[in-house]
Amino acid sequence: MEVTFYLSGAIAIAATLMVITGLSAVHALLYLIVSLLAVAIVFYALGAPFVAALEVIIYAGAIMVLFVFVMMMLNLGKAAAAKERDWLNPGMWVGPAILAALLLAELFYIFAQGGTLSGAAAVGSKEVGIALFGPYLLGVELASLLLLAGLVGACHLGRQEDGHGHENG
Questions:
Q1: Phi first, then psi: what are they for 152, rounded to 5°?
Q2: Alpha helix locations (H) across the chain?
Q3: Is the pLDDT of residue 75 over 50?
Q4: How far is CA 15 from CA 21, 58, 144, in A?
Q5: Residues 150-169, mean pLDDT to the nearest whole number
Q6: pLDDT of 99 strictly over 60
Q7: Burial class (CB in 10 A: 0-12, 13-18, 19+), 166
Q8: CATH code at 110?
């Protein structure tokens, strides 16, 4: 499990760096999904399968769908349609596919060993929840405020105004 933890952590860091340094919003979105999946495996390796499942369902599922809708809302017409055709290039998927394949290999490794947690990694979801909402409450709340600020910024960018300063739509 220790190998799984460190490898997932390294994948999460690499994918997050690609999110920050990437020039394309679609690439950043793909790498962000890979990063969130890697963090879910880190939680699982730490013995919190419930938190790992929530990470996948809430963050990698629901919030990423919301970001996709925001990107669709910011569509700029024919120039954006031509750019979207370029995004379908298989070369764009190489980086996220490699990182996702590593995560999949880790999952197979975990399940091949019986999917059980050993020793110090066997911490229950209750203990993780108590830690997140105990001494780490400020960090959890700051992360939620950061997500809220991103959503408000995306809505502000997506808002269209006519020539008189009134909003359309």
A1: -65, -40
A2: 2-21, 25-45, 49-54, 64-73, 78-87, 94-112, 125-132, 137-158
A3: yes
A4: 10, 19, 20
A5: 67
A6: yes
A7: exposed
A8: 1.20.120.1200
- pLDDT of 162 over the 60 cut: no
Burial group, residue 92, by CB count within 10 angstroms (0-12, 13-18, 19+): middle
Residue 120 pLDDT: 45
Domain region containing 105: 2-123
Residues 7 and 60 both lie in one domain: yes
Residues 148 and 105 in one domain: no
How many whole angstroms separate alpha carbon 160 and alpha carbon 165?
A: 9
Q: What confidence score (pLDDT) does residue 161 get?
A: 62
Domain membership of residue 168 (yes or no) is: yes
Q: Look at residue 81 and tell me if it is in a domain.
A: yes
In this predicted model, what pLDDT tens digit does every residue of 109-129 receive, in sequence order?
877 877 655 544 555 667 767
83/159 same-domain check: no
Please check whether residues 38 and 93 belong to one and the same domain. Answer: yes
Give the pLDDT mean for 60-84.
Answer: 70
Given a contact cutoff of 8 angstroms between Cβ atoms, the answer to whether 34 and 96 are in contact is yes
Structure tokens at 32: 């962000």
d(CA 23, CA 10): 22
